[in-house]
Write a structure and sequence with these properties.
The protein has a single domain (about 5-305), classed as TIM Barrel (Alpha-Beta Barrel), CATH 3.20.20. Helix content is about 35%, strand content about 15%. The protein has helices at about 30-40, 55-60, 90-105, 125-135, 150-165, 185-195, 230-245, 250-260, 275-280, 290-300, 310-315, and strands spanning about 5, 10-15, 15-20, 45, 70-75, 110-115, 140-145, 170-175, 195-200, 265-270. Strands 3-4-5-6-7-8-9-10 form an 8-stranded parallel barrel, surrounded by 6 helices. It has a two-stranded antiparallel ribbon with strand order 1-2. InterPro entries: AKR_Detox_Biosynth, NAD(P)_OxRdtase_dom_sf, NADP_OxRdtase_dom. Keywords: Oxidoreductase.
């Protein structure tokens, strides 16, 4: 596995992140998955305060080797549904959520703390200053944001730049061949701003693995209702399966490799229910998709960015007849 820098920092992070959202207990299977990921060269484990017992499991599994990993967790979602201040991106919830996360993770610092979702009721100034305070206190090393509009992320980092606070180094969003909405604003913003993009749901809740398209419905519980997969989703899954057959790899590997190929800032978050599934997903790092395969996949799941991106791309003539001679910025 190869490594990249986290955002505009010097922190080295592996190209695939390990998602621990479904970890509910320390089992032989969980320990085996952690071992597979470590052996593959992975060094980022992603969890959240709202993922049940996940933080506690991660803390136990990494005990004795915690400093070798980049531990990422999130705050925002409610700790007590009956208490308004037990959720949100304000200072009180940040402090209490972080302290609980540190106890669960059995550590005195978090490498990467994500804001879990944009809180419209808390001023960005308060959130960014409070995040900077926990960084200065040594309890958090880097910060990122998940599930927020591009303008919110850009404004937050502008505030941080102007005031000398810690800026967001990463962005976490859903991204797959089927769910490409982030290509409209969020991904271009991240590339221009130098943000790392952690991509979740790269298999589109299993649709792109082919399990809903090839053969009978899966017996294990899923988040997809039987019969709810659309024809567009089936078409995309069939294209992924065809490319996988041509390359001698699995559909899951093709789907994950597609996200890696789309942008150098994208780091897929891989998770699994079994060590075998994780081993299969991790092998995506060694899959190179030819241009012809990328084209086939794109045609199977048509996507348009819409206004203003498509309009601007088609407006070259507005800048004169010699605009094609301009090399522009590197």
């Amino acid at each position: 596995m190869r490594y990249r820098l986290l955002g505009r920092t010097g922190l080295r992070v592996s190209e695939l992140f390990l998602g621990a959202m479904t970890w509910r207990a320390v089992t032989p299977g969980v320990r085996a998955m952690m071992g597979l990921y470590e052996d593959a060269g992975g060094n980022v484990v992603d969890t959240a305060s709202a993922y049940g017992e996940s933080e506690s499991v991660v803390g136990e599994v990494l005990e004795g080797r915690r400093d070798r990993f980049v531990v990422a967790t999130k705050y925002t979602l409610t700790r007590d549904a009956g208490d308004l201040n037990a959720a949100g991106n304000h200072r009180k919830n940040l402090v209490l959520s972080l302290e609980r996360s540190l106890r669960r993770l059995r550590t005195d610092y978090v490498d990467l703390l994500w804001v879990h979702i944009w809180d419209r009721h808390t001023p960005l100034e308060e959130t960014m200053r409070a995040l900077d305070d926990v960084v200065r206190a040594g309890k958090v090393l880097y910060v990122g944001i998940s599930d927020a509009p591009a303008w919110v992320v850009s404004r937050a980092n502008t505030l941080a730049e102007w005031r000398g606070w810690t800026p967001f180094a990463g962005l976490q969003v859903p991204y797959s061949l089927l769910w490409r909405d982030v290509e409209r604003e969020l991904l271009p913003m991240a590339e221009e701003s130098g943000l790392t993009v952690a991509a979740w749901a790269t298999l589109a809740q299993g649709v792109l693995s082919g399990k809903y398209t090839a053969g009978p419905a899966p017996e294990t519980p899923t988040r997809i209702e039987p019969g709810s997969v659309t024809e567009r989703e089936h078409a995309a899954a069939r294209a992924v399966m065809d490319v996988a057959d041509d390359l001698g790899v699995t559909p899951s590997q093709v789907a994950i490799a597609w996200t890696l190929a789309r942008s150098r800032v994208v780091h897929p978050i891989v998770g699994a229910s079994t060590p075998g599934q994780l081993a299969d997903n991790l092998a995506a790092a060694d899959v190179t998709l030819p241009e012809e395969a990328m084209d086939r996949l794109a045609q199977a799941a048509p996507f348009t960015r819409g206004f203003p991106a498509d309009f601007i791309a088609e407006a070259g003539g507005a800048f004169g007849t010699r605009i094609d001679r301009l090399d522009g910025r590197p």
